[in-house]
Amino acid sequence: MMHYRAIWISDVHLGTSGCQANYLLDFLKHNEADKFYLVGDIIDGWRLKKSFYWPQAHNDVVQKLLRKARKGAEVIYVPGNHDESARQFFGLSFGDVKVVEECIHTTLDGKKLWVTHGDLFDGVMQYAKWLAYVGDTLYSFILYVNRYFNMLRVKMGLQYWSLSQYLKHQVKNAVSYIADFEHIMAREARLRGCDGVVCGHIHKAEIREIDGLLYCNDGDWVESLSALVETQTGELKLIYWTHIKGDPVEAPELSFQTAVASILKEAAL
Fold first, then answer.
1. CA–CA distance from 91 to each of 74, 96, 222 (Å)?
2. Residue 241 in contact with residue 226, Cβ under 8 Å?
3. Which of 133, 127, 5 is nearest to 73 (CA)?
4. Superfamily of segment(s) 2-268
């Protein structure tokens, strides 16, 4: 069991078939932290509005996070665009999980890192949201194919590999979009008097310096299977959880009523 000063995860997309909940649940079982930052798109409200999909593993992830908060870890939730409905609860807590618009994390060596999902600085999200919805539909189809592709790889004894991430990084416009986003986030961090930024949104895990600012993206749990951590010695690094240490269990899908009841029960304990 590893114990970190902080762990950042984002873009889990619970409620979608592309979510790798079993991998995330395994990660949470083997890693602890003083602070957990949930950096947006934890639950995919866009997809759940179209159809309800909620396997037991997705419920287990929510319950695991609530349990960590109850046992003393500080769990901070910064909603993103796919879970934007949670933004109406800024300043409130749900089962000891604090919901905030953005926050500042101070590293062991005193660096101030601005923590935000990143969608509010995405031109497509702000000025052509319809295009984002179209892109999300196409992206969901690729993730659907990716799911069965990796089921075959697991049976062959191979580790997880993201077909969707590979395709995205081969497209010139996508690469340009990612680079622009990274520079915008670094600029915004500077305007806030911070030494760097931690964000998600674009599903590309990264730690690098941009114009003297530290840019960190914790990746996602549909493609990268990654988290950002700060170790007890103050080192920031990315962890990729492409192997499940325990044997994954195929759990049944829950009804809406059963899922909500179990989450509310965990939050109330």
1. 15, 12, 29
2. yes
3. 5
4. Metallo-dependent phosphatases (3.60.21.10)
CA–CA distance, 254 with 28 (Å, rounded to integer): 21
Residue ranges covered by each domain of the chain? 2-268
Nearest-10 crossing angle of helices 256-268, 56-70: 10
Encode the chain (269 residues) as per-residue pLDDT tens digits: 899 999 999 999 999 988 999 999 999 999 999 999 999 999 999 889 888 999 999 999 999 999 999 999 999 999 999 999 999 999 999 889 999 999 999 999 999 999 999 999 865 444 334 344 445 565 666 666 777 667 777 677 777 766 666 655 554 455 566 788 999 999 999 999 999 999 999 999 999 999 999 999 999 999 889 999 999 999 999 999 988 875 444 455 555 455 545 545 555 55
**What's CA 34's distance to the chain center, in Å?**
18
Strand duo 206-210 + 196-199: pairing? unpaired
Burial of 183 (0-12, 13-18, 19+ CB in 10 A): middle
Q: Which two tokens stand for residue 214?
A: 């530290």
Q: What angle separates helix 172-191 from helix 163-170, to the nearest 10 degrees?
A: 90
pTM over 0.70: yes
248 and 26 Cβ atoms separated by less than 8 Å = yes
User: Which candidate, 118, 116, 73, 61, places its Cα nearest to that of 97?
Assistant: 73
